[in-house]
Amino acid sequence: MLKALKTLNEILNNIDDTAKKKLVGNHLDAFYWKIYITDYHIEESVKVFNHHEGISPEEEYIEIVKDIFNYHSKSPNGLNYRIAVFKSEANLIAAAQSMHSLADICAHIIYRSLNDLQNTIPEKNIGIKSLIRELKKKSKYDKIVLAIKGLTDSNEFKYLEGYVNTAKHKSLIPTTHTVSFAHKEIVEQYLSINEFEYDGIIFTKLKSSELSNLYFNNLKNQYKEIFNALCGLLIE
User: Fold this and answer.
1) Domain containing 139: what range?
2) How many independent structural domains does the chain possess?
């Protein structure tokens, strides 16, 4: 995806319209920044549990189990464990919100890059869904519409949209700290995000590691296809 963004940036740097170049450049900078923020929060959501270092996996597992049993205790270990769970969930929500915001930033990039879209959508209404409606009016945009629909119709995007909007506007989605010792050499720790309902869709229980790794990586691939399609339009 970053390679596609770099190519787009190089194309835009060659245009003569200084004001347009600056405006689209600002949106591109925001997109880059949100990616870095997402990656930061993903790393932090995992790192908070990695406080048992320099010991064997078996010893680490025992220490983690002790933490779990101390969850409701007033001991320092119990407090530290509760703080770790809180920090992990807070960073997971922040990562999801940052990743979710990429869709509308992407919409601004596309809208400002294509000359014949200017003034077709009010500034406050520019978003990924309003952009699709406008692009569909011209057949020359079929390829980029297909790429955008690949994003918005994906299970990953729908889950992210439901997760973020539920946490933001409705209620926090309960999570459970889970420890797996399924692999002999690795103790896996993650939050299990409980099942929830959004816009008539039931989203099943999911590992936080699946959301922050598999889902986010799949979404990045969808954005790569969108920016590749945009680059194709700009060099025609």
Assistant:
1) 2-234
2) 1
